[in-house]
Amino acid sequence: MTRLSIGGKSRKGVNRSQARSQVVTVWGYLTPMS
Fold this sequence. Notes:
Helix content: over 70%
Number of domains: 1
Strand content: under 5%
Distance between the termini: 21 Å
Number of strands: 0
Largest sheet: none
C-alpha cells in the first residue's frame, strides 16, 4: 500500500512509467531485496 501512496505523489509531476520507475528505485533503496 505504501507503494501506491508514493506512486500517486510521484505521478503528480511525472508520467506513470517514470513514477513507477522512481517508486521501484526508492523501494529498492529503502528495502534492498537483492
